[in-house]
Specification:
The structure is a single chain. By secondary structure, the chain is an all-alpha fold. The chain has one domain. It is built from five helices and no strands. Helix 2 packs antiparallel against helix 3. The model has no long low-confidence stretch (mean pLDDT 92).
């Protein structure tokens, strides 16, 4: 199984995967996306991984997507 970091790196280097992930988040199916790509991370684990990246400015996520991740 991939770690959330490994999947994150794949998503960041592949535009089609980014598009697929955005669609999954909007549909509230990000964990299904993770599993389909070999990662069994939960939404909470993914958020714990990306929040420091967002805080440092390394990653930007539109507010509506972040809100969808946090509140569902």
């Amino acid at each position: 199984m991939k770690t959330i970091e490994e999947l994150f790196n794949e998503v960041m280097s592949d535009k089609s995967l980014r598009t697929e992930l955005i669609k999954a988040i909007k549909a509230g199916k990000q964990e299904e996306f993770f599993k389909a790509h070999g990662c069994n991370a939960t939404t909470q684990e993914a958020l714990a991984f990306v929040k420091p990246k967002i805080a440092s400015g390394e990653l930007t996520i539109p507010d509506d997507l972040m809100e969808k991740l946090i509140w569902g």
